[in-house]
Structure formats: structure tokens, C-alpha cells
């Protein structure tokens, strides 16, 4: 099982200066900013163009993503793709990334499955420089946080998805994280919703999916 190292250097020293997205994706393979690289198969960075009107940020890659090296390609990713299609935004028109770029997990007792573990605050903060570097290059109209971890990484741990779910809000000023996230030009909007994996875990999956799809439709309309 993965544990946190409070003495980890953070990703800042691994992020190249004056980099484009391809440079960031390549450099991330060498990141040793926290302990998660030790057990993960590979880094999973992002997919999409810098000029995508809609940016979606999740928590971390899952088991399938860790094996394939691309975000949102497992069961939760398939559900997200379906909802984006229904909202009129093809997956290829969005930018998809995660707050944490390596898979955190523990193995089942017999070692046959890798079970998702939520990244801790140390790991989220350690990985923040990659997310900041991405946002320095992005020009979205709408930023969507998929789940509480992503929302906390973007706007601070005090934010509650349950209170503001599906609401279009001004993109957070850099004062939320002084010296971190840049102001976006042109200004963007922010919307938080649940992570698609929460839909898959719901007792009433159909209702949960409809609510999730409705949130993405709000974001897609604003990004159009």
C-alpha cells in the first residue's frame, strides 16, 4: 500500500520552464515529486488541445488509465464520454486531465485487483505544479471539476461540491491559491459536479447519470 512522504520535493522542480503541452507530457514521465510514481505503472498526464473550450479535471487515473497511459478510458471514462456526446461536446473537443497524475492504490488480499485509494493532501499539493503549468497554457471558456478532490485542488479544500454542484461560477481568482493558478484570458467560468465513478457506484445509477449529464450540459452550453 502506498504511503505519503512529507519530505517529498513536490513536482515543481520537474516542471520545465517555457514548455508547451507536449513538453509537459514528456517531462511528467520523470516526475518524482511524491511517492506515487513508485507503484504506478506510468504517469497519466492529459489529452486534448490547449485551445479546448471545455476543460475537465478529475481526481487521479484509475487502474485502466494507469495501464493505458491516457485519462478517462476506463468505465468512468466511458460514462463521461457518453455524457459529453449527449451534451454535444465530443470527447475530442475537450481537454481532460487529473489533479494527481499517478494512480494511488492498494492490492486486494489475494493480489488479483488493484483497489483505488484517494490521494492525500500531501500528494495533491505535490502534484499541483503540473496542474498550474497546464492552466498557464489553457484558454477554456469553462473549467469543470469532477468530484471533491478536483474541486479542492482547483479552488481550495473549503469548497463543497454538494453546496454548489452544477452552478456556473467565475473562475477562481489567483488569490484562492496565491502564486498558483493564473487568471484565464479570456475569463472563464467554473462548474463542479460529481466524479463519473460516483455515478457508477450509485444505488440509482440512472438518476445519478441523468443529474451528471445535466451538469455537463450546463457546462457545454456555456462553453459553446
From TrEMBL:
SMART domains: UDG (SM00986), UreE_C (SM00987). Residues 45-217 form the Uracil-DNA glycosylase-like domain. Coiled coil: none annotated. The keyword ATP-binding does not apply. The keyword Transit peptide does not apply. Pfam families: UDG. Keywords: 4Fe-4S, DNA damage, DNA repair, Hydrolase, Iron, Iron-sulfur, Metal-binding. NCBIfam families: UDG_fam_dom. Belongs to the uracil-DNA glycosylase (UDG) superfamily. Type 4 (UDGa) family. This is Type-4 uracil-DNA glycosylase. It comes from Luedemannella flava.
Amino acid at each position: 500500500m502506498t504511503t505519503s512522504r512529507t519530505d517529498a520535493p513536490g513536482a515543481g522542480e520537474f516542471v520545465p520552464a517555457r514548455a508547451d503541452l507536449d513538453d509537459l507530457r514528456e517531462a511528467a514521465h520523470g516526475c518524482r515529486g511524491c511517492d506515487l510514481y513508485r507503484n504506478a505503472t506510468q504517469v497519466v498526464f492529459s489529452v486534448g488541445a490547449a485551445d479546448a473550450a471545455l476543460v475537465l479535471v478529475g481526481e487521479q487515473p484509475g487502474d485502466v488509465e494507469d495501464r493505458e497511459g491516457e485519462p478517462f478510458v476506463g468505465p468512468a471514462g466511458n460514462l463521461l464520454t457518453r455524457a459529453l456526446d449527449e451534451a454535444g461536446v465530443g470527447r475530442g473537443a475537450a481537454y481532460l486531465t487529473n489533479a494527481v497524475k499517478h494512480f494511488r492504490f492498494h492490492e486486494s488480499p489475494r493480489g488479483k485487483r488493484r483497489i483505488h485509494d484517494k490521494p492525500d493532501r500531501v500528494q495533491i499539493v505535490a502534484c499541483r505544479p503540473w496542474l498550474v503549468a497546464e492552466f498557464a497554457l489553457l484558454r477554456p471558456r469553462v473549467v469543470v471539476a469532477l468530484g471533491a478532490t478536483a474541486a479542492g485542488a482547483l479552488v481550495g479544500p473549503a469548497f463543497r461540491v454538494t453546496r454548489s454542484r452544477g452552478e456556473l461560477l467565475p473562475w477562481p481568482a489567483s488569490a484562492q491559491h496565491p502564486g498558483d493558478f493564473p487568471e484565464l484570458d479570456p475569463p472563464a467560468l467554473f462548474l463542479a459536479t460529481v466524479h463519473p465513478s460516483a455515478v457508477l457506484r450509485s444505488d440509482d445509477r440512472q438518476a445519478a447519470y441523468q443529474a451528471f449529464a445535466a451538469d455537463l450540459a450546463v457546462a457545454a452550453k456555456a462553453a459553446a
